[in-house]
Prior knowledge:
Pathway: Cofactor biosynthesis; thiamine diphosphate biosynthesis; thiamine diphosphate from thiamine phosphate: step 1/1. InterPro entries: PurM-like_C_sf, PurM-like_N, PurM-like_N_sf, ThiL-like. This protein is of the alpha+beta class. It has helices at residues 12-25, 73-89, 110-126, 178-195, 207-214, 222-228, 243-254, 269-277, 282-288, 304-307, and strands spanning 35-37, 45-46, 52-61, 94-104, 130-138, 144-153, 169-173, 235-238, 257-261, 295-299, 313-320, 326-329, 335-339, 342-343. It folds into 2 domains: 12-157, CATH 3.30.1330.10; 169-337, PurM-like C-terminal domain (Phosphoribosyl-aminoimidazole Synthetase, Chain A, domain 2, Alpha-Beta Complex), CATH 3.90.650.10. Strand 4 (94-104), helix 3 and strand 5 (130-138) form a beta-alpha-beta unit. The structure holds adenosine-5'-diphosphate and magnesium ion. Adenosine-5'-diphosphate is lined by residues 21, 25, 39-42, 100-102, 131, 133-136.
Amino acid sequence: MLEDKNQERTSLEKLGEFGLIQHLTKSFKLNHKSTLKGIGDDAAVLDFGGKKAIVSTDMLVEGVHFDLSYMPLKHLGYKSVMVNLSDIYAMNAIATQITVSIAVSNRFPLEALEEFYAGVALAAELYKVDLIGGDTTSSTKGMIISVTAIGEANEADITYRNGAKPNDLLVVSGDLGGAYCGLQVLEREKEVFKVNPNNQPDLSPYTYIIERQLKPESRKDIKGLLQGLEIKPTAMIDISDGLSSEILHLCKASEVGCNLFEEKIPLDPTVISACEEFSIDSTLVALSGGEDYELLFTIDQKDFPKIKGNPHFSIIGHMTDKNEGANLVSRSDTKIPITAQGWNSFS
Ligand code: ADP
Ligand code: MG
């Protein structure tokens, strides 16, 4: 969590732009057949044969999307890749390549960028994607990161947001709210640190939720899990902004309504205890917290026996006719319209 003040600092000017790119990218290897040309020319060249190419891009801005006072740069590199791969997996595709572009001010030494790239390299290795290019430039203040992820899929496997039908089941992978709770812990410790820099907090009870915030994983495994169950989702989206916002996207794109059952929302025990500690409602956290990078999808009702009881998935509701709207069915069995910020009774 704390910055090591004794680190070496090599000025970026020493290397020059080309030296820097070469230095940061030299250890990356290409593993995909589809990567014909990676880093080193004016553009990369890809060949997906008979498959469709899937492309997604995201930008991360210091002070808006991340805070370097508690986000180690290696984690930031890893998370920047995860955020983008998640969008490829949400199309039911396989991620194959990434480009990574960075803008940094002269406050960043070479060692800081090495840390960032160590995170990128770990993500690329674990998720089997080739780094095929990027751009390196300077900023007047702060760090800006843009990652583009590229993937491949058979046309028939691609899952859009618009395929859900009334009576389809609404399913989510993993559990929700952890990343937001982790952020609350980190923000609190940052304030404590400002007052007492020598305080060594015991964060071990929060390991899971802090990892969900600082080192999220994206759900590369879901495509294969669903294939193994012989289920083709009818619609899919990744949970970057919170369950309620993603449900509304699915409903809008598919022109359906939905009933989401509060009691079915999957929460890790550490999320429940952190919510108690911070006096926040755990349902609200799952609905509005965001950054969980789980996948939310719909399946035909006939597939219920195939997925029922599966530890990777929770069936949290079902889709309805559009005119019924998108609703949360609370534990006390009242229907509350879902809004992007959570739901009305809490605003
Ligand atoms: P150009 O002037 O054509 O934009 P660059 O000098 O920016 O070329 O980049 C040279 C090569 O290095 C290209 O293949 C580019 O994709 C790659 N590259 C540049 N910056 C990065 C980076 N931060 N990470 C990975 N690859 C990079
Ligand atoms: Mg360039």
